[in-house]
Amino acid sequence: VLNYSDADLDQFDSLAADSSAKFAIDSKDDYIISPRAEIILKTKALKHSLHIGFNAGYNIFSKNDIKNYGSFGFWFREYLNKKAYCQLSGSYIPNYYYRNLFLSAGKYEKARYDKFGLGAKFLTAIYRGFSGSVSYRYENRDFNRIFDERDLKTNNFSSELIYGSKQSFKCWGGYEFSIARAAGRNDFTDRRDVSYDAFLFWVGSRLYFKGINDKNMNAGAMVSYKNTLFQTDKLTHEDRYRFGRKDDRWSITISVNHDLNKKATIGLLVNHVNNSVDLPAVDLKPFLDYNSTSAKIVFDYSF
């Protein structure tokens, strides 16, 4: 459910550990139902096609209802021609449960935040099957008052190169640079600074072919690597978890989708994440390294 380390999960499993304060979850594994709806309006603007989308979703955790959350989004896509468009988008996640966080004297409190994002993207064809995009996204994460020092403002800059089409084969690769600055960074009264810089790289491919009953089918895979460098210079006990810390995270995703008819598609997605941490406080490493695997069954229906 959460990206807890093996050391944390050992504590969670131990009957001798008083984990009730540290863990608000009831199970480290879960089944999640995620209904989602999207409305797309197509019209004309500036003599070109304009698409407007609105979506909303809700994630229902069968064993850990504290993790239930909703999400909302919108986007405006203006096509400049058949092979180029500009897009503006926004998203909002209210009251998301992050996890129980340590305060002092062995006391933990539930950490929640609201997350708001705005983004812009430009995509265009380049040359003989190649297309490329550049994007910018701003995100604001606002924690509940007791964790105000963790409030985070992030600027993300990304670019991606794509080759191929949905006719037979597509492959892509991209890069994203993120600058995240926390409210506690410049306030000497705050004992934590969760600011970081991150570098994300990814490559992927997807093959399109005919499946059962000659229906359209596709299968794909993607590998990503993210290097996160925490920026705190606070020599506090609380920031031992971040001072001089570097995270290396690998993610592998495999997915298969199959059309049932012209309106319905079913799919399976499997994702594995491995996060390895390097920091001066080596005794904390077992509590920061983690592995997680998730499988998702997706059903899409277009009205």
How would you describe the overall organization of this protein?
This protein is mostly beta strands and 303 residues long. It has a single domain (43-53, 78-301), classed as Lipocalin, CATH 2.40.128. The protein contains one helix and 14 strands, in the order H-E-E-E-E-E-E-E-E-E-E-E-E-E-E. Strands 1, 2, 3, 4, 5, 6, 7, 8, 9, 10, 11, 12, 13 and 14 form a 14-stranded antiparallel beta sheet that branches. The chain is globular. The model has no long low-confidence stretch (mean pLDDT 90).
Task: Provide a concise account of the structure shown.
The chain has 303 residues and is mainly beta.
**CATH topology tier name:** Lipocalin
Average per-residue pLDDT, rounded, comes to 90
CATH architecture: Beta Barrel
CATH class: Mainly Beta
Structural class: mainly beta
Question: Which band does the percent of strand residues land in?
Answer: over 45%
Radius of gyration: 22 Å
Overall 3D shape: globular
How many E strands?
14
Helix content: under 10%
Number of domains: 1
Number of helices: 1
Helix-strand pattern: HEEEEEEEEEEEEEE
Low-confidence stretches: none
* Main sheet specs: 14 strands, antiparallel
Q: Gap between N and C termini, in Å?
A: 32 Å
